[in-house]
């Protein structure tokens, strides 16, 4: 009889230990998930480049990290900033919600901020009446379209509204950007791209080692 009681007690003890371990693992997993959600929502998020619009700065297959905290902490879904930090500056590479399809994220370079007057004349950008030092833009198409045909090469002048940005891809002749669909609302800016952590050439199926760890400018 005593032996049966001892076995029962031992079984109960082992069951309690097992439950305790399960609770520990479950707690650790839940905490890890919560930390990952907080980091992804408010601090940093990974993105992959699917198009040529930011060549040569970003290549198709580049994987990069975006600093989401730098432009302030936003309330998810409502997009209201509750902890302001700073606003995007001219030259920043930003990820934002595409205005024409809010299920997509776009990445472009900030060309104009609130109050800037933007004009493009034969592919030359003017900001507030002065020629913009376009250090990152490339132009591969020898054709220059008049404004009556399309806004790619001749555009404006327009003034960037308050709380908005004018953005363009570095690959100026192959970028769907503010010239075609308008301004980006500051509320829709997800963050600033700052480093390439991985890069894969999908066509040649090889890793671009020289791009790993590149700081974006």
What would your notes on this structure say?
By secondary structure, the protein is an alpha+beta fold. The protein has a single domain, classed as Umud Fragment, subunit A. The protein is built from 2 helices and 14 strands; from the N terminus they run αβββββββββββαβββ. Strands 1, 2, 5, 6, 11, 12, 13 and 14 form an 8-stranded antiparallel beta sheet that branches. It has a 4-stranded antiparallel beta sheet with strand order 9-8-7-10, with no helix packed on it. It is elongated and about 90 Å long. The model has no long low-confidence stretch (mean pLDDT 88).
User: Based on helices, strands and strand pairing, what is the structural class?
Assistant: alpha+beta
Which architecture per CATH? Ribbon
What fraction strand?
Answer: 25-35%
Helix-strand sequence: HEEEEEEEEEEEHEEE
Name of the CATH homologous superfamily: Umud Fragment, subunit A
> Whole-number average pLDDT?
88
> What name is given to the CATH topology?
Umud Fragment, subunit A
- Please mark out the parts with pLDDT under 50 across 5 or more consecutive residues, or reply none: none
C-alpha geometry: elongated
Q: Which bin fits the share of residues in helices?
A: 10-25%
CATH class: Mainly Beta
Domain count, please report it. 1
Cα end-to-end separation: 78 Å
